[in-house]
Amino acid sequence: MNLQAIYHRPKSNFCYAYDENVIHIRLRAAKGDIKKAVLIYGDKYNWEKRQELNMKLVCSDDLYDYFMVEVSPESKRLAYYFKVEGGEGEFYFTEWGLIKDIEEKEVYLHFFQYPYMNKEDIHKVPEWVKDTVFYQIFPERFFNGDTSNDPDELTEWGELPTSGSFYGGDLRGIIEKLDYLEELGINGIYLTPIFESPTNHKYDTKDYFKVDPHFGDLETLKELVSKCHERGIKVILDAVFNHCGYFFEPFQDVIKRGKESPYYDWFHIRKWPIETDPPSYDTFAFTYRMPKLNTSNPEVREYLLKVARYWIEEADIDGWRLDVSDEVSHDFWREFRKVVKEAKKDAYIVGELWLDAYPWLKGDQFDAVMNYPVMRALLQYFAYGNISDSQFKELINKVRMRNTKQVNDVMLNLMESHDTSRFLTECNGDADKLMMAVTFLLTYEGVPCIYYGTEIGIEGGHDPDCRRTMEWNKENWNLKLFNHYKKLIGLRKQNKALRRGKFEWLDNIEGVIGFTREYEDEKVFVLINNSNFDKKVTLEVNGIYVDKLTGDVF
Amino acid sequence: MNLQAIYHRPKSNFCYAYDENVIHIRLRAAKGDIKKAVLIYGDKYNWEKRQELNMKLVCSDDLYDYFMVEVSPESKRLAYYFKVEGGEGEFYFTEWGLIKDIEEKEVYLHFFQYPYMNKEDIHKVPEWVKDTVFYQIFPERFFNGDTSNDPDELTEWGELPTSGSFYGGDLRGIIEKLDYLEELGINGIYLTPIFESPTNHKYDTKDYFKVDPHFGDLETLKELVSKCHERGIKVILDAVFNHCGYFFEPFQDVIKRGKESPYYDWFHIRKWPIETDPPSYDTFAFTYRMPKLNTSNPEVREYLLKVARYWIEEADIDGWRLDVSDEVSHDFWREFRKVVKEAKKDAYIVGELWLDAYPWLKGDQFDAVMNYPVMRALLQYFAYGNISDSQFKELINKVRMRNTKQVNDVMLNLMESHDTSRFLTECNGDADKLMMAVTFLLTYEGVPCIYYGTEIGIEGGHDPDCRRTMEWNKENWNLKLFNHYKKLIGLRKQNKALRRGKFEWLDNIEGVIGFTREYEDEKVFVLINNSNFDKKVTLEVNGIYVDKLTGDVF
Fold first, then answer.
1. pLDDT of B336 over the 80 cut
2. Are A37 and A67 in contact (CB under 8 A)?
3. CA–CA separation, A201 and A165 (whole Å)
4. What CA–CA distance (Å, rounded) separates B553 from A91?
5. In this structure, which of A136, B3, B417, B529 has its CB flanked by the most CB atoms within 10 Å?
6. Is A4 in contact with B2 (Cβ distance < 8 A)?
């Protein structure tokens, strides 16, 4: 047995409360190494009544097997350890590691524990998110619905963007295209920033309380959100709280007045007078136009929390996407969560985070993050074709096991964003590859997010090229692609199993990947042939099944 | 190479900010498996300027080697991965696991990260704690300094206690024995609960704002604390916030009025009318006399936080020991920390926690916990003699690696408490064993805590026997033991290296265990012979050394 491979840690993704009654326990071991894993559990104050449960091997990645089991401790207290069986016989696995025997007199020093299921520590995620297909819009490039608010110098719609291009896209443009979005079938919109800023991307905020005049005003935003809500579409905005823009008034005041400014400690000023090359203050990514905000200053916190609350209360938005969320303090996000959930109980909080985000996803900070690790797996498997079927499954499993089930349920899964090159471009324009990838995205667990325009075949390399204008001339659309998106989104909306169903790989098939999503009496089989050849798959099923793409009945 | 053994996770005990400038990185691998581990690190926005640092093998436990390195990222952002060299050559270890090569174009998806060192997330621990030797007092059994406040029926001082015995010990008794404590040399007192309660242990609080009348009153407590402070002794009290007592007024109100009571939601009532056998409400350990408090109720939180603040402001106490801290919510403790540190910036917050306490020791909750895992190692090695020298070292290393350095610096190390049988009893009365164990305790990293009376040879089995009365007749003392305690406490106070010095095992010695504590130009060698035979140890040292026990100079 590979003793060193066995891992468990309480109060982590390996042991967490799923809801007020259920605790999930996971155990990791070297792949293929353990024949049997048993959970021995009970109340530490009543250990004589302990029980045993066999754990289930739920998935594997390249190196490890993951075993799992659910328990519902009546007293809300859980003490436990494991019994594992490998080649060399049985071991107990306790907080002290693998041992042959546990002395009864010191058993209380061996327990792993979830000491008590306190309600306020349990991560509750918004239910509506599970039923949502998001559509990410870069407003400056979607549609120009109001030419009266255009910036002075416009690039012609359709021309390739440079980093400084303006095209006139605005909130009115989104309102006018709601029919389109409804036809596509999406029911959630995530807007990149819309507050006043001199740039087209608006990640350098000048005024957090003002819609950018080129995009509209408070009334336009309210109209957009309320018209979305009428159609059952939720709206989330982009909170750029890590840094402000160079022209943010408090920062301008510091430039002018230095230590005399009441805002001096709103930033991380390393030297005054302010210099910009290199910046004499902490910034986002060495960009002098983006001074980092000092969230250890209570005034800054109060200000940003007011912003968070304001747009929920004023414009009725349904959540926040958090820009550069990993560089802002955990302490701030904890307070942010409380304020946001108080303003709107089921608001969705989703962080921009490219790495293993578990430290932010324990229930006290975000509900989910943008799932860039899944993007990487999709790129490798579908776009580049440089990993095998089983490697793809291993990557997906690795990512799933990083987080709790409630987080995986509302993870914002994506293939691309305004910060990456577009998926179709990474496929060298091969829309078949994209169609396979999006089939996965729209049937997998978690919440799909479509980057505007991909559904009709827009391409683009890295920023700024991935921010091209939306194509409104249907003659230039890839209609096959568009219809595929529509069909898949429709299927997801019609089948609760695709939104909430238990995810399980089909392991007994060859040459294709497949999985099931199962919810109550509904079971969906998803099969994706990512090869250049036709494949025949035999499935053993009970009952009547319908091919949801062709309509054929079996 | 044992690929499955290699472990790292950012924002955990494997990667944390030690202070505002320094990040500690640890890497775990199978014991003896890796020849070399290198950290490759830089700013993710400036990755071309990445650097390399060799990691140091700092310690091992039964299964693993732990490598460590410190970095000080100038931009306060850290991206990194590892290069490890084993039998089969070099691998990179990134967030995706062990790989042979990293494609340049996707390096940003491979980083481990400490994204930004935000001040408010960094765990700062109180400096004074590092210079403290604590003495735990069970006030009912220490000294009866005021017979006018005695309970009605007293057991005679010196008789063995039953669970219901009262002896009349009180706060005045502690005040009167401050000379004794100063002679012993301790400079911190931790009192088990002193608020009004019907029991001798007072873990079932009736009134959180009142000193138990049998112990004294607010004035006595103030006098005790201020007289301690005059002598440089800090005082911490026991916060019993997981549960109250049956006679706590709000609970009595619920018994009487049920759902009509404004306090109904202060508890976890499962059924009304209240039943006690079994209790129809959540309790501590199925004990009906200890109803669990509902910390998800804002009124309860406000009440308990007021208690926490009150005794700091009124009586000037220096911190709180938190009873059953693992069963109270993390969310509550986070708020508790803010309130307590606001009331007294360098208050010490130490949880009662028997298990791996890392989830509570990340900087947002406690400063430290009672180090019961170290107690287990001391018992096995010194009292029972059922583990070898190297197994002892492995256990100690395992426990150290669970937590950050700043936590280890202020960990409350103990050999016993009011909740365990006494160490001397576990040694079957062999004071030589106890003397070796306490030599370790008083020279090891972290903060020693002495349970009243052990220093003079008091014995006792499990509760209530471990709560015997203090012996004040010097004729009954084990003077050799007492002098050993005095000597060791004195050495710790005289030698900063013993309080703040870097801890390192001496690995090139045989038949004894030894370690050094090094601080600036001071270096202390500690050697403990836990065998029944004389041992000769040769040490290579530079400079002049003094045997601190005999005074001999080398």
1. yes
2. yes
3. 10
4. 51
5. A136
6. yes
**pLDDT exceeding 90 applies to what percent of chain A?**
93
Nearest to A4 among B9, B63, B398 (CB): B63
Cis peptide bond prior to A273, omega within 30° of 0: yes
Contact B381, B363 (CB under 8 A): no
The secondary structure of residue A47, as a DSSP letter, is: G
CA-CA distances (angstroms) from residue B121 to A213, A460, B128, B215? Answer: 37, 39, 21, 40
Catalytic site positions of B:
323, 352
Backbone angles phi, psi at A553, to 5 degrees: -110, 135
Question: Using CA atoms, how far apart are residues A534 and A514, in angstroms rounded to an integer?
Answer: 15
The CA distance from B75 to B21, in Å, is: 10
Kindly state the tokens that stand for B83. 């290069």
A469: tokens are 């204008």
DSSP A360-394: G-SSSS-SEEEEHHHHHHHIIIIII--S-HHHHHH
Confidence class of residue A362 from pLDDT cuts 50, 70 and 90?
very high
Structure confidence at residue B539 (pLDDT): 85
Please name each of the domains of chain A with its CATH number: 3-121 (2.60.40.10), 133-240+369-405+412-494 (3.20.20.80), 243-292 (3.90.400.10), 498-554 (no CATH)
**Count of pairs with CB atoms under 8 A, one residue in A, one in B:** 138
Question: Across the interface, do A2 and B5 touch by the CB < 8 Å criterion?
Answer: yes
Contacts of A444 (CB under 8 A, 6+ apart): A374, A396, A413, A503, A515
Question: What gap in Å lies between CA A88 and CA A34, rounded to an integer?
Answer: 10
Q: What are phi and psi of B287, to 5 degrees?
A: -90, 110
Within 10 Å of residue A441's Cβ, how many Cβ atoms?
Answer: 25
Residue B468 reports pLDDT greater than 80: yes
Residue B72 — φ and ψ, nearest 5°? -125, 90
User: Is residue B303 within a helix (H) or strand (E), and if so which, with residue range?
Assistant: helix B298-315
From chain A, pick out residues whose CB is under 8 angstroms from the CB of B62.
97
Q: Does B356 touch chain A (CB under 8 A)?
A: yes
ipTM over 0.90: yes
List of E strands, A127-259: 134-137, 188-191, 195-196, 207-211, 234-239
Q: Of the candidates B64, B97, B121, which has its C-beta nearest A4's C-beta?
A: B64
**pLDDT tens, B469-483?**
999 999 999 999 999
| Exposure string for A514-542, b = 16+ CB within 10 A, e = fewer | bbbbeeeeebbbbebebeeeeeeeeeeee
Compute the distance between CA of residue B428 and CA of residue B432 in angstroms, rounded to an integer: 11
DSSP at B451: E
Instruction: Sort strands A207-211 and B447-451 into parallel, antiparallel or unpaired.
Output: unpaired
Q: How far is CA B393 from CA A451, B27, B31, B55, in A?
A: 55, 19, 14, 21
CB A202 within 8 A of CB A244: no
A551 Rama sector, left if φ>0, alpha if ψ -120 to 50, beta otherwise: left
Interface of A with B in 118-137 (CB under 8 A): 118-121
Q: Which of A176, A178, A172, A212 is nearest to A192 (CA)?
A: A212
Q: Does A95 touch chain B (CB under 8 A)?
A: yes
Beta carbons within 8 Å of A52's beta carbon, 6+ residues apart: A38, A39, A40, A41, A83
Q: For B115, which of A43, A75, A326 is closest by C-beta distance?
A: A326
A323 is catalytic: yes
| Per-residue pLDDT tens over the stretch B351-382 | 999 999 999 999 999 999 999 999 999 999 99
Alpha carbon of B554 to those of A142, B543, B544, B551: distances in Å? Answer: 82, 9, 6, 10
For B127, the 3-state DSSP assignment is helix
Q: State the pLDDT confidence band at B544, using cuts at 50, 70 and 90.
A: confident
Contact call for A328 and B118, based on CB within 8 A: yes
